[in-house]
Amino acid sequence: MAVSVDIVIPVLNEERSLPRCITTLAAFVAQHPDREWRLRIADNGSTDGTLRVAEELKVAHPNLEVTHLDQRGRGRALRKAWTESGADVRCYTDVDLSTGLDALPLLVNAIADEGCDVAIGSRLTKGSQVVGRKLKREITSRGYNAMIRTMFPYAGFHDAQCGFKAVSRRAAETLVPLVEDNAWFFDTELLLVARAWGWKVREVPVHWEDDPDTRVKIVSTAWEDVKGLLRLRFGGIPDRPG
After folding, report:
1. What is the spatial distance between Cα 234 and Cα 31, in angstroms, rounded to a whole number?
2. pTM
3. Does residue 159 carry a catalytic annotation?
4. What is the pLDDT of residues 62-100, one digit of tens each?
5. For residue 42, what is the domain's CATH number?
6. Of 187, 210, 211, 239, which one is the catalytic site residue?
């Protein structure tokens, strides 16, 4: 039986970007029939026509599902989509597809074939390629990830923030519900808990192109991330079940 894979696309007011994203993803997975692929749009609090566009795309793509939340938060959307999914491997990618999809099978293979519980795309490891990233974002990202490795020496990963990740069924059912953050720190918290529990995390170098229309507010997001790190450092990591 083929390994089942869900690809979640968390979205907030992305009515313009969604058609291109879904068309591109559908074409890509069609070229890899060795896996049983499903796409899932996870709308979190959109106020434009995102949900309408998502439902229209669902008609055209039989392997597409739509999840909707009234509350905003990328972490909240991922938690809902990943925990409700029944797939063997549960991925997500940002709607702008800044990360090259050629790395997607590598994420899936790490979970399905190599026994990893988490696999992440990385822009900061050997073999990665980054195009068009502004200096401010580059410095902020490298500084943040250096802070992680200083505060949590066991972390071992280099890029917590790349919007391109996959988790196993065990991670989705056991670890994801324990992640407290509902926004951008969700990714870092997920990784740190996984590493603290001794779970295997695979980092895959990616080709990444900056999206000039990004909605991420660097200063406020960075501050929330720092507060999240302090919470985990001094509040403790959840105990591993069992």
Report:
1. 47
2. 0.95
3. no
4. 999 999 999 999 999 999 999 999 999 999 999 999 999
5. 3.90.550.10
6. 187
